[in-house]
Amino acid sequence: MNYKHLLFLLSIVFFLNSCEDDTDCCAQPPEPDHNFATGTFILNEGNFGSANASVSYINENTGETQSMIFSNTNAFDLGDTAQSIEMHENLAIIVVNVSNKIEIVNRFTFESLGTINANLQNPRYAEVVEDKLYVTNWGDGTNPEDDFVAVFDLNGLSFIESIPVSEGPEKLLAENNQLYVAHKGGFSFNNIISVINTRSGIVSSEIEVGFLPNSIAVSGSELWVLSSGKPAYADVETAGELSRIDLSSNELIESIKFPENNIHPENLNLINNTAYLTIGKALYKFSMGEDLPQSAEFSFDEAALLYGFTIRNDKIYIASPNADFTGDGNLYIYNLNDGSLLDNFNTGINPNGIYFN
Question: Is 8 helix (H, G, I), strand (E, B) or coil?
Fold first, then answer.
């Protein structure tokens, strides 16, 4: 008999028996490093000039909520007036408007990976194309000639170039090596989509749409643009418009105006062949390619304002500040099919955006 084999077998039996008797002896798998691997982030812009912007975390499955996860994780504050977050791979790229900076964190742990605080002025929204980060900037809000898109190397966070654009660049979307930028006008009113060639860094064209384009989305070979129109306090109030642009030629296919000048739609969401938008606090729904809807599906009476809005997994998420923009706001979650309120969570001051892991 091979005594070494016998001793080996006996040692295994002893080990298994001891593990059954003592639950602490067996090594447990390590806890995951990702503190926020699953959940919803709410960006809270805070009060202008108060440097109290924050990010809240909500786990809908467990009901867990955490406030100020950026400052609690990194031991320094997010800054003044957080504008937007761009989620890219394992990154959350947070644009902080009044602080003129961008905070880049691990989206699963919210640990800081770096800060960009130069070559920005009034930054608004960000988009990543390959290894480049594009950020829209209003420049000096009183100067219509100094708006630009700043370009950074995402790997080293170094500045690459500044691309001059028309006044008031806001949301941007990448498609087929082209960057589509919606221009609302900053402190004024604008009505164009500019197209930047991401290979050359040059504005190749500008496409006229309705005034104040607030939503852009791709459906097949088309770019859909929803514009709210000039508000009642403008020189002349104008109706909202829904425009479609051919992505291959960058030409306007169609632009449909809403029937009354006091109708100002927002929050376009395209899901399969259905389009959703909001007017005031009501949701409208229609099949893509058909006429604009005439009546609302339902309204969101609990929300003071639809400051942040998105649709995901048959749920509607609304970030609502208080009506006077003071104090903590709320996240309301509704059923997309019948408009029933599913849940309600407290957030930080003036929540303006909803993002997901």
Answer: helix
DSSP codes of every residue in 48-71: TTS---EEEEEETTTTEEES-HHH
- Token code pair at residue 67: 């406030």
d(CA 242, CA 302): 27
Positive or negative, the Cα torsion across 20, 23, 25, 27?
A: positive
Q: Specify the pTM.
A: 0.89
Alpha carbons 225 and 248: distance in angstroms, whole number: 16
Q: What is the helix, strand, coil percentage profile of the chain, to 5?
A: 5, 50, 45
The whole-angstrom separation of Cα 104 and Cα 70 is: 10
C-alpha 334/C-alpha 344 separation (Å) is: 9
Answer whether 26's CB lies under 8 Å from 97's CB.
Answer: no
213-248 tens-digit pLDDT = 999 999 999 999 999 999 999 999 999 999 999 999
Alpha helices in 101-205 (DSSP H): none
* pLDDT on residue 34: 58
Tokens of 217: 């989305």
Q: b/e string for 305-314 if b means 16 or more Cβ within 10 A?
A: bbbbbebeee
Contacting residues for 76 by C-beta, under 8 A, at least 6 apart: none
C-alpha dihedral over 130, 136, 137, 142, to 10 degrees? Answer: 160
On whether the CB atoms of residues 196 and 164 are closer than 8 A, the answer is no
Q: Rounded to whole angstroms, how far apart are CA atoms 165 and 5?
A: 77
Quote the pLDDT of residue 35.
87
Digit-coded pLDDT (tens) for 254-304: 999 999 999 999 999 999 999 999 999 999 999 988 889 989 999 999 999
